[in-house]
Write a structure and sequence with these properties.
Layout lengths: L1 H24 L8 H27 L5 E9 L12 E16 L2 E13 L2 E11 L4 E4 L5 E2 L5 E2 L4 E2 L5 H7 L3
Antiparallel strand pairs: 1-2, 2-3, 3-4, 4-5, 5-8, 6-7
Length: about 170
């Protein structure tokens, strides 16, 4: 966040200096209000570019085995350009390299879901998926496993068979 702020300020300073130098070259023929307007416009463009580039930058820096399963696009009234094209502000990735199964329960697997958010901490949560029944259960305190790998006291939640989260978690690696 700090480096983006510095980059935004530097974009404004660079644009203002460019317009100022251009005005000096033209011997003052440009209006005086053009310097601060160009600085503000450059800072706005830098901010918008940073917002729309966040998802691609973050996705390219994810470790091997991470698959983006769901994205959340955002529209906000104080960012009117997001009504033209919403930007990805959060997404969920499945860490397929951490898939754990039990030999007695081949259709059930535990995977880590990683929640990314712009200006938010990354969170990693283990979740149990039953690929045969299209259900999932959050692994929270109190969930126990039986000797044959069956889950005791789990709160199963149904999912659509074509849900991207279920498909990514149940994909064979």
């Amino acid at each position: 966040m700090f480096f983006e702020l510095i980059g935004t300020i530097m974009a404004g300073v660079a644009a203002a200096l460019f317009v100022w130098a251009l005005n000096r070259t033209l011997k003052g023929r440009l209006p005086s209000w053009l310097v601060p307007i160009s600085a503000g416009a450059a800072m706005l463009v830098a901010t918008i570019t940073s917002e729309y580039g966040w998802f691609a930058r973050t996705q390219s820096n994810m470790p091997d085995g991470f698959v983006v399963a769901q994205t959340i696009e955002d529209q906000q009234f104080y960012r009117p350009w997001t009504y033209v094209k919403p930007f990805v502000s959060r997404f969920v990735a499945v860490d397929q390299m951490t898939t754990r199964t039990h030999p007695a329960q081949p259709d059930q697997r535990i995977v880590d879901l990683v929640f990314y958010g712009r200006w938010a901490r990354t969170a990693k949560i283990p979740v149990l998926f039953d690929c045969a029944n299209n259900t999932r259960a959050d692994l929270v305190d109190g969930v126990e496993f039986g000797p044959d790998g069956e889950v005791l006291d789990a709160q199963w939640q149904p999912m659509d068979a074509d849900a991207p989260l279920l498909q990514a978690a149940c994909a064979q690696v």
